[in-house]
Amino acid sequence: MKQLRQIAVYGKGGIGKSTTCSNISAALSKQGYKVLQIGCDPKADSTKNLVGAQKKLSVLEQLKTKKNAVIDDIVTKGFANTYCIEAGGPEPGFGCAGRGIITAMEIVEKLNVFQELDIDIVIYDVLGDVVCGGFAVPLRMSFAKEVYLVTSGETMALYAANNISKAIKRFGERSSVRLGGIICNQRNAYREREIVEKLAGKISTNVISWIPRDNIVQECEMKNCTVVEGCPESAQAKVYDSLASSIISNTNMVIPTPLDDESFDLMIKQAEMV
Amino acid sequence: MGLKKTVKLSALVSAVEKNLIDIGECIDMHQFCAFWGAYDVFSYFDDLVLLVHGTAGCTANRHFLTSMGQMDNCDKKIHHTTDMKENDIIFGGEQKFMDSLEEVMKKNPDKNVVVLTNCCTDIIGDDVEGCIESLPDEDRKRVIFMNTGGYSGKTYRDGTENAFRLLAEKLYSFGRSKDREQKGSVNLFTRRWLWDPTKKKEIDEIKRDLGLIGLKMNEVFDHGFNMESLEKMSEADVNVSLCPFYSRGFFDQLRTLGGIDYVDSSAPIGLEATMRWLEDIARKLSMDISYIYENEEISELFRMRYELRKKIGSGRKCVIWNQTGDRLLSLVKLASELGMEPVIVGIELSTMREKFHIFKKEVCEGGVEAAVYPSKYIDEIRELVNELDDPVIFCNDNFFSGKKVFKYRFAHNPVYGLNGARSIFTALNETLDTPMNNYSIFLEK
Description:
B: 19 helices; 14 strands
């Protein structure tokens, strides 16, 4: 019986999680894995670069209109046969998005999606931060066991990464959830490499990939596709391909050692002073 | 003697006031949440219809609790709920609420609608108040709204007091004036969770006692009340209550908004408390009622009490096990007036905290005193009772085999006023004459 790997990707809002996840999913699919990407964000736009113009209702929209959704109602097949699900959620300012994620994950589990589709790898693309219990669901209830943090060298992104590692630590101490590493989506920030590496060391993990800033990413997104699909021969596509391989071969899984706020501030100040 | 482990009630009250004791929460009726408190209050009104925005469970619970209705019956009023489901929690329930409110208003054109929320609505932050504000004027005026999600820590008392505040504001929004001619009339606030026929007898007795000092009843706040009766409450000279904990929020509002004072003595249980209660009412109205001591019925009750005191004997211990605050204090006063030394057991400090104003008034200001044995455990209390020299025990259970246990069911017997005093004296007299009660659900001899 094959081993299902479930991977969650967290990071500050707007840091490039969905772009990174979609490219990883595309690269892994091209490598022959059966990949399912689940967007855990009320915006329901995690997988748009994989599915292109196709548009299916999110799990929660299905729940609204149909009591007994089936797998076909919520799963869209995207580039290179990637499977895509969007959890969805309420309009801004209404209801409870966290509860929505819990419900969506329960539906995915109830429909036995992973087994029915014979999935090898599930990638959860989770909204911004672990803002409440709902957004921690991929870390709980026997879902993802591996977590990757997407950050840049900007202070707020680093702060979010450290913050999320606090949640991973908490869950890790009572389950097998582990941090697999940091993915640095570079913004060419001041002393970016040093600072990100410093944080990685402090929280007891490694930087698993350095993704350079390249306009090709935006160009492909404007065409509703990933770089892996739109410019497969580009250097950027090779970075994503390499990242996907690194994730597959990564065995360095840790319970992180997050910094308290004071130590975090000190780390940033020291980096500035250097 | 077994009183080594006791503390003085006044010391305990002082410690609670100074927050020197870490008082945990307890499962007590007054630890129910604000939802229940508000629901209790608004359910008195026949011309208010309740709509609970939230999941159905709280409403259903309420519906089937016997104590909320009549004896041996459930509450038969129609209660409405928006019956929120998973979708409403995730996507927000405001539209469902507006649809439900419209339906309830249409079906009840002659009633005002009370909107309460329960926990899940408050947690997800549905803007119920905003929805109500968006209604046309004539509809909005028909709605009374309260956030009552208990998860926020709002207690039963918060629920009752806020509900009464809204009702009082509604009353004075009718344009009532504080100026009125004194007519010698009184509003009566009845006991909670009491049903006919005892309640009717109780109201009749209070009317009769008030009549003895020349006062008449204005309105009786009781189940079956309506907004018109509420409006008439503003015509009374003074408010009196058989449940000071429950009525206080309302009375405070009526005093602030309408200038109607209230009597905050604890319940008129026994002769002493009844006389003090009547005197307090009279004092509020600047009346001299010293003449009632010459009343034949009252003189007879004093003689009856004298005989009973003789029979009990001076300085006998009276163990009192009752957790409801105001009634506990009334029983302490009853024991004292019968020449006994009260020993309180099983006291619930969270109840004392919730009803602190009553304890403060009676103990700190009124000089009511007792010994308090702080245990709530039957074995320890039984041990204490066994160490005492033939005490009289006020308790409603058969915990004390072979002892003089005065089991007086407050829900089924006259309790208040002069008739109440007579019944209590008679029953206690019989208890003292009855051969030792050897029955116990724990121990059969």
